[in-house]
Design a protein that fits this description.
Layout: E1 11-15, E2 18-22, E3 29-31, H1 35-40, E4 52-53, E5 79-83, E6 91-95, E7 101-103, H2 107-121, H3 124-134
Antiparallel strand pairs: 1-2, 1-4, 2-3, 3-7, 5-6, 6-7
């Protein structure tokens, strides 16, 4: 697979047992459909620093790239820009065919930080505490 940003061969990598592709040139990440959900389950704030490139998968100089970003998995797939989160407007790219995700460097960590914050801010315990301070029983 080649990087949709610069055309370099993506190195096979993993975070814990989650497999992904990492560009050795721009440090972007390719996640097949469903991998993001598995990453949400991982502890820790800086997941990108845990990416382990598997030996023998890094390649040489990237070819020249032109036009729209192409899916590294699908032959004819185009990557469409989407805003992934509400609070921080993190822009990532999703393949219209296989639904895989491309993220530029640091975007995965930003998404996972926001996901953890949202889970904490809107947890049932937090909401009960918040509502308990604001709601007074009717007399």
């Amino acid at each position: 697979m080649n990087c949709p940003r610069d055309g370099a061969a993506l190195a096979d990598a993993k975070i814990n047992e989650c497999r992904l592709g990492k560009c050795p040139a721009c440090h972007g990440l390719w996640l097949d459909s469903g991998v993001m959900e598995d990453l949400f389950k991982l502890p820790g704030a800086k997941v990108e620093s845990c990416v382990q490139v598997l030996p023998g998968t890094e390649d040489g100089a990237p070819p020249h790239m032109t036009g729209y970003m192409r899916c590294p998995r699908c032959i004819d797939g185009r990557l469409q820009g989407i805003t992934y989160t509400l609070a921080n407007s993190i822009r990532i790219y999703r393949c219209e065919n296989c639904l895989g995700l491309w993220m530029d460097e640091t975007e995965l960590d930003a998404i996972l930080r926001e996901e953890k914050w949202l889970k904490s801010a809107y947890s049932p315990d937090h909401l009960r505490q918040h509502l308990g301070r604001r709601v007074r029983p009717h007399a």
